[in-house]
Amino acid sequence: MVWSALLCHPVWVAFTALLAFVVRVQRRGPWLPRACPVRLRGKTAVVTGANTGIGKFIALDFARRGARVILACRSEARGTAALKEIRDKTGNADVHLRLVDLSSLDSVRGFAERILAEEEALHILVNNAGVSGLPKQITKDGLEVSFATNHLGPFLLTNLLLDLMKRSAPARIVTLASVNHKKGQVDFSHFHGENLTYHMDAIYNHTKLHNVICTKELARRLEGTGVTANSVHPGIVMTEVLRHYPFTVRVIFNLVGFFFFKSAEEGAASSIYCSVAEEMEGITGKYCDSDCSLVLPAPLARDAALGVKDFEISERLTAKL
Ligand SMILES: NC(=O)c1ccc[n+]([C@@H]2O[C@H](COP(=O)([O-])OP(=O)(O)OC[C@H]3O[C@@H](n4cnc5c(N)ncnc54)[C@H](OP(=O)(O)O)[C@@H]3O)[C@@H](O)[C@H]2O)c1
């Protein structure tokens, strides 16, 4: 009784509302996509995993700016729903759905072939699609499924589209990594599902470290071509990213996230910043934080020799036999 009287006290209610407001404002980063006047008319962008979460808001932003946008999704039904929503909200009819399953190298090759056949140019590639918490599974390419989806599939896709991007320069490649890459380790036997411990986000963290390492090495290889490559952390974002986690973990994530985590729209900001902001013109090989500042990634991601080795092994594993 005393507690309920206290909790309903106007001072308490006002204080809680003020705190919630402050937390809500803090969630938003300092760079707001809607305040950025850059237009993308005449530009073509590919966004993977664009049917939901962060990817959908990245694609929506590009469509608003007038770009031709290719939504690279694995589900026709979910992709079509997002396509309709983005066209309706932006009035941009030049938004298209193309299907790709990034965990399959054949599917990635088929998707890339279609893009190369249909598109005259490609100015922005956002490697957004990703998974976390999948149980162990080896794909028909002999790769561990999370590494295939998060690292090796997007790695192959990027390499297959590189010549088109070079011809379209200036062009930008943006790969969604995560601050969790700092907890990752490099062991190349992981790619085949060996020496892995499946617990919560352990596998995910390794895959995200490869994202940052290989993006940095790609940037080095692209020097002088007019194509930049950067990796980003979107923040902790309320999306479906925990869909493979236990129910209780998802409940806690959503409860805490309601107050403290970014919305999918807010989480798209750092990727949009790297893709379109004038401040990022010519900037390459960097790791961008969720507040759009360029920060140092983990020491392993700055090891140039490891970058060369990781890139070469990833090339070998994704080469057509
Ligand atoms: N949310 C966060 O807190 C957070 C933090 C750091 C980094 N990130 C990164 O941000 C990116 C976007 O995540 P999100 O939070 O928006 O997650 P999400 O809501 O789960 O969306 C993931 C997207 O990836 C697609 N995808 C998954 N596996 C795929 C495959 N094999 N082939 C093609 N597409 C596939 C999904 O398609 P379906 O809908 O068909 O499954 C979906 O469109 C990911 O790379 C994630 O690692 C997220």
TrEMBL record:
GO terms for molecular function: oxidoreductase activity. Keywords: Oxidoreductase. It comes from the Eukaryota. The keyword Oxidoreductase applies. Pfam families: adh_short. The keyword Flavoprotein does not apply. InterPro entries: NAD(P)-bd_dom_sf (IPR036291), SDR_fam (IPR002347). Belongs to the short-chain dehydrogenases/reductases (SDR) family. This is Zgc:64106. The lineage of its organism: Eukaryota, Metazoa, Chordata, Craniata, Vertebrata.
